[in-house]
Amino acid sequence: MSAISVGQAIVLGAVEGVTEFLPVSSTGHLKIVEGLMDIPVDDDSVVGFSAVIQVGAIAAVLVYFFKDITRIVTAWVRGLRDKEERYHHDYQFAWWVICATIPIVVVGLAAKPLIEGPLASLWVVAGSLIVGSGVMWAADQMGRHKRGEDDTSFKDAMLVGSSQILALLFPGFSRSGATMSTALMLDLDRVAATRLSFFLGIPALTGAGIYELKDALGTGTAVLPLAVGTLVSFVVAYASIAWLLKFVAKHSFNAFVIYRIVVGLLLFGLLGAGVINS
Questions:
Q1: Taking a C-beta distance cutoff of 8 angstroms, is the pair 17, 240 a contact?
Q2: How far is residue 7 CA from its own chain's centroid?
């Protein structure tokens, strides 16, 4: 029997869609909601379900940034055949995304038992939410916000891409939060930091979803809840992306910092009171 019902899949899909690209930790929120619904968070099929519905959110990015992605991929293909095209920023950026994905893939495969074991605890999630808030606040305050998307370099991509490892090892830290914070520390403006976070997340999250598909389907998760959760994730994530890009153009990340601290403290309280299990 599937560990997740269609109704639960709708809720989890909506949570994934809202939180995947906001710097508040989608993994953390999914684990919290799963705990509140008494879904076994350490079940292989549940872990696989959570990874697969991320593909819905990634599909939303692909659709939202379709023109940008098409331009970058086209430049990359042309550069493979024509040396003159290799000086084009889009060609170089495509390679940067590929290279910046390697660290998280290596760590993800090597540390999989640890990530799905002790580090999956909701105590870790609560602590990571709060610690990550401090990092994000400091990055937003210290960053000079003077560099745009066209000013990014290979070094920027590698540092920002590698920072995804923090969220991989410490669910609750937030992949978006880690990448955006790193980009802000490198003096990118908030919109450039957000867009870079989106592009660097595409291969990592898509790969995770495909890799976990066997667990989601092979250990009892029914196809219907998986399909429903992924579809809901896509629709909600698309709206979330559009909202976030407009928000960061005019506001700081302070609202997210405060929200993360509140959620982290609330989670500590719920765990301490035994309302939900870690």
A1: yes
A2: 23
As for how many domains the chain has, the answer is 1
60 belongs to a structural domain: yes
Helices (H) and strands (E) in the chain, counts: 14, 0
User: How far, in Å, CA of 28 to CA of 32, rounded?
Assistant: 6
> 194-207: per-residue pLDDT in tens?
999 999 988 887 88
Whole-Å CA distances, 249 to 190, 210, 243, 254, 273:
7, 33, 10, 13, 40
278 falls within a domain: no
- Whether 243 is covered by a domain: the verdict is yes
CA-closest candidate to residue 17, choices 5, 4, 29, 31: 29
pTM, full prediction? 0.87
Segment 127-174, tens digit of pLDDT: 999 999 999 999 999 998 999 988 999 999 999 999 999 988 998 898
Dist CA 242 CA 5 (whole Å): 29
Residues shown for the chain: 278
Q: Provide the 8-state DSSP code for 267.
A: H
Residue 207's domain spans which residues? 6-272
Residue 277 in any domain: the answer is no
* Average pLDDT, 10 consecutive residues per value, the chain (278 residues): 81 95 87 83 74 87 94 95 90 95 92 83 92 96 91 95 92 91 96 94 81 64 86 96 95 95 92 83
CB–CB of 240/15 below 8 Å?
no
- Average pLDDT value for the chain: 89
Instruction: Give CA separation, 13 vs 5, 54, 159, 170, 202, in Å.
Output: 12, 9, 30, 21, 18
Q: What is the Cα–Cα distance from 194 to 145, expressed in whole angstroms?
A: 12
Residue identified by tokens 């906001």 is 22
* Whether the Cβ atoms of residue 125 and residue 266 lie closer than 8 Å to each other: no
